[in-house]
Amino acid sequence: MRELEASALIGPVKEALLEINYETPPETMERLRRALATEVSEAGRAAMEDIVRNREIAAKERLAMCQDTGMAVIFAEIGQEVHLRGDIRGAINEGVRQAYQEGYLRKSVVADPLFERKNTLDNTPAIIHFDLVPGDKIRLIVAAKGAGSENMSTVKMLTPAAGLAGVKREVVEFVEKAGPNPCPPIVVGIGIGGDLELAALLAKKALMRKMGQRNPDPRYAKLEEELLSAINRTGIGPQGLGGINTAMDVRIEYFPTHIAELPLAINIDCHLHRHKEVII
């Protein structure tokens, strides 16, 4: 059994949030530059030039690449052979607090969603998803999710009769309806199966993959590619200004479901696509 103080999570969470708000992973930067090189729309190409330049400045100057520095979302996989002493949730939130205060990142979280809507002033609490897994390691996926793209997300409870064609239609039509609002070129996370809440969680988890990483099931990998092509044929383009680069990637996660339902969740991420994996 590995013994670990919960406070050991503070630093990694803090550093991950600072990094994802300032720097762009190589595989994502490559995809953005490819979109710039291939874009046929003059307005879309100008938008991509601004996006790529913004990323370069943010990394060089250690400045947030967007004014919406997101709500912290953490997927925490805790190895069953790890004994964490202390307040795990508190330690993760302390890491979030330090990152947003010391990094001069915008604090966007309100304590009450409906009535007072007072800012918590430190961007906590984070949304934390815990999972127990084999092993003696802790795997954190730390994300900063902006509201522009999160607002362009949905869960639809389809009937099994909708089938493959129905899923494709729902996804493409929803992206078309979202238009420029989620700041294309986007990444589309899709959850299929489970139930209402699990489908939404699967869609969010799908966004946490690396750029271009396909579902290991070849059927779903093929569907990812088909949906990516269909979305890029909509003509929405970068920042909704027209063109062939509406989406950078489409990712699907699935889970067994009830015989009478076909849950489908769509969680869109903007071109910032901020997340990082940390192993402790």
Q: What sort of overall outline do the alpha carbons produce when their principal axes are compared?
A: globular
How many domains comprise the coordinates? 2
Strand content: 25-35%
SSE ordering: EHHHEEHEEHEHEHHEEE
Round the mean pLDDT to the nearest integer and report it. 97
Give the proportion of residues in helices: 25-40%
Output the number of helix runs: 8
Q: Largest beta sheet, briefly?
A: 4 strands, mixed
Straight-line distance between termini: 15 Å
* Class based on secondary structure composition and strand pairing: alpha/beta
Can you list the strand order of the major beta sheet?
4-2-5-10
* CATH architectural designation of the largest domain: 2-Layer Sandwich
